[in-house]
Amino acid sequence: MKKMLCLLLAVLLLASVGAPVLAEGTGEDEIDYTTGTPWMDIDLEGNVTPDTPTDLKDNYALWVNKDRILSMEYPEGYIAAGNTSDVNYKADQDLKALFGGEAPEDHDARLAYDYYYLLSDWDARDVRGVEPLKDMVAAVEGIADLDALTAYFVKTPWEDRLSALWREKVRQDPDKPGWNILSVNAGYSFLNDPAEYLEMTEDGKAIKETVDAFCMEMLAKFGYSEAEAEQKIENCFAWETLLNTALAEAEAAADPEDPSAFDVHYTRDELLAATPNIPIVETLEKVDGYPVLEQVLLPEPAAIECLNRLYTEENLPLMRDYLILHGIYLMAEALDWDSYVRACDCQEVASGGAHMEVSREDYANSLVYDEMKGIVGWPLSKYYVQQHTNPEDKVRISELVDEIVDAYYGIIEDADFISAETRAGAVAKLDCMAKHVLYPDSWEPYSFEDVNFASKEEGGRLWEAWRAIKKHEHEKTIAELISPIDSTVWDLLPCIGNCGYTPGANAISINAAYAQAPNYRPDMTDEELYAYMGTAVAHEISHAFDAFGAKFDKDGNITDWWTEEDYAAFNRKNEKLIAYFNAMHPWEGQDFDGEIMVGEACADMAAVKCMLRIAAGKPDFDYDRFFRAFADRFATKETLFMAMARLADEHPMAYLRINTTLQQYDEFLDFYGITEGDNMYLAPEDRVTVW
Asked: Among residues 2, 39, 79, 416, which one has the fewest Cβ atoms lying within 10 Å of its Cβ?
């Protein structure tokens, strides 16, 4: 729901809209989108025509992919075509197919199956409306004094509590490697930036207007009059203003070079001393089930201290209405259609997106699966894996991962800009890197065996199922707090068609939904396997050593494991890579932002270097097939809307991921006879590979 829904709906709206070669600019100017340097943006629909000339030595990506680009069609609901779209579309279709047949026997797979039908049962959800929340709202409405509010927190089971004045989450402890810590902060605010409460911007006004409309309509469902609803909204924002004004002032006064004002460790006694009025510690330990807290992390101590000061009888109406509005806001997605749609729109605008309109067709075609991933992602993934993967593929791709890691040791060994001390730290990262391939070896850490609810056929309803899952999530959070961090546990869902690197766990994930045609086929040649899957795997490994990943050590902690001289040399190489992309233009007058692309570009280049290192040890390796397959992996056609979105993407545009990557390596230049004077040529002193 949240931010990605806006893009998804924009995709649905614009999938059939082609991008013209010429578009109107400001005034009388026109933008010619074929004028990119050093290469035309061949990904942009309309730029490549049957008459477009090709020359291997001028634009390799165009030379290889021209015919494919001309024949590409957008998958239904997409505004980009190519391997990425094809794989994600196939993953979407495979998910949909899971719910067209008989119910599975496995407990977790059956849970996903049943939850899908409860989510989709809008008739039953609409009949209940907001009824499931009415008792919880009434309980808060009945709080008559500050003692009653305190009693509400310390006596109401967390699952029956509408909301709280603070929020907590489990996160990695920066001072205790390998362990989590409970982070405690003031409650949610509808306006994300505290400064908005000092002087509201136009964006802030738009968010508030949307929130006001949502609250007015939802409160009417609970039987409040218009005047009562307006008062509650005024009270809620008055409470948020009191808290956020103090927070904004604290942030403004803080020294940006001094991190001590934020992310501060408090002992249990220090937290009790800082919050003598508000029962945070008692609620967390005695009601919410957290263990006795030896330490907590306060990301914004000023907010907690302010919260304690404001916890007074005078502010009771403000706190009470804050709890009601935020409770409704957080739980509306599990209610009726009207509540769900309005919550989607409100959440989207509040997160910086545009207003969105959702139809039931949109929901059935795509949004229901996004909700499934967010709520029952692991049961859904288990069901997906049971139906759409096989052990032989996991074995082969695991062997590929091991082969690539071995080659990466050689890349680190050959890096001439780092010392033995830094090299040892890099080798340690490889030694400790967790390798998640297709799906977990054991499903036990992701089990929902303790979650049970009635299916639609058994008379079950979504609200009860949703609450049962929330209980499971809460108990799992507590377990994560009291146990050492297990870096082998996945954080990416196998049913998502992507791969990733998690710096805080030092783990790569090659998801099952990604490892399908055209990215992977069991009958691939070595050259194709290395070009498609190999470069994807090596790309994720490379993120451990890009500008961001290099800040994390072998255990996933932000630790300076570089020598000062080596890190300075590393930064100089990254700055050269940034300047390289800043000198390029997708079309005349449009710049790239090399700074946001430096990590992904670094990973692309290191990935190809890794695969070329492996290829060098293969007799009769077919370099032409490898380079063509690599170019095909990134073959893309997209609308102007999508191309404009790419400008803010951390990934370089697809045609650049081909040309800028390959021109770094002698193996490519020598094989095709590309020399000085050719547009694809890059002199050794101008090359920008970081590793």
From this structure: 416
